[in-house]
Amino acid sequence: MFKNAKSLNATKTTEKKDKKEHVELQGLSDLATLDGLIKTLSTLKTSIESTVKMQAFDHFCAVAKETHKKTDSFRGIDGEASASIEMRKRSVASTLTEEEVETLERLGIKSEKVIKTPKLYAINPAYASDDALMSKVEKALTKALKDIVDVDNFFVVQEEVSKSVVTDETIEAVFKNQSDNQDLIYMVTTLAVKPSLKNFSVEKALKLAVELTSSVESEETHEEKVA
User: Fold this and answer.
1) In 10 A of CB 99, how many CB atoms?
2) pLDDT 10s digits, 124-173
3) Which residues of 162-196 are buried (b: 16+ CB within 10 A; e: fewer)?
4) Is the Cβ–Cβ distance between 78 and 131 less than 8 Å?
5) Do 64 and 70 contact (CB within 8 A), yes or no?
6) Strand 112-117 and strand 81-89: pairing?
7) From CA 102, how far away is CA 19, in angstroms rounded?
8) Helix, strand or coil for residue 107?
9) What is the largest CA-CA distance in the chain?
């Protein structure tokens, strides 16, 4: 009985063989390595940029608490690096959610409703292609349509498609009346950081890249050991 018991071990999976033709291409290894490096650095840049933006946001909010107004920009500095830091109105491409609109309305702050597709009525194509019928309808528009067609089915409606967006008035109201509400300020604004260096050095940049990537690898190794 025990000899015939089925094994509970996971079934072996066979790797799919690559049936494509393999062609040696010089430089492909370097390309793949650089591609991986760029992706890693891009992730690191996003993380560092997030830290910089958090500090910038805190500064904007601190100024807003005192002035009850939005500061458009300031210049951030760090050694030889500097950046124009701007607090902008949330883009109209970024639609406010229903919950966000409700939050603003609850505080007496208005957003703007932008209509992308207006609501309108049109003649059902099934009837519009019937020239004889349309001719009768045209002559009888002043009369009751029910004598000619099924009124409830003759017209179709195109529902309105709209979105709510942040306006200059929204920004003004938030900073005037809710200058200590960082969550609200964060909701209606966006930050733009434009960094620059007085003297860019490829050598220093590569050294920094090595330090940052090494730090990431060390953290990953530590996490694997802990796990």
Assistant:
1) 7
2) 888 877 888 888 877 776 567 677 777 667 777 788 889 999 999 999 99
3) ebbbbbeebbebbbeebbebbebbebbbebeeeee
4) no
5) yes
6) unpaired
7) 56
8) coil
9) 91
Average pLDDT, rounded, for the chain: 86
pLDDT of 6 strictly over 60: no
Burial (CB < 10 A; 0-12, 13-18, 19+), residue 132, is exposed
Q: Which residue has the tokens 């050991």?
A: 225
Q: Residue 119 has which token pair?
A: 């609501």
User: How many CB atoms sit inside 10 A of residue 141's CB?
Assistant: 7
- 114 Cβ neighbours under 8 A, 6+ residues apart: 92, 162, 163, 164, 165
> Which residue(s) pair with 86 in the sheet?
73, 192
**What is the mean predicted confidence (pLDDT) over 60-85?**
95
| Dihedral angle computed from the Cα positions of residues 160, 164, 169 and 170, in that order, rounded to the nearest 10 degrees | 160
The Cα–Cα gap between 40 and 29 comes to 17
pTM (two decimals): 0.71
Of the pLDDT bands very low, low, confident and very high (cuts 50, 70, 90), residue 121 is confident
Q: Which amino acid, one-letter code, is at 34?
A: L
Q: Report d(CA 164, CA 114) in Å as an integer.
A: 6
Phi, psi of 68 (to 5 degrees): 60, 30
- Least Cα distance to 183 among 174, 194, 192, 173 occurs for 174
What's the length of the chain?
227
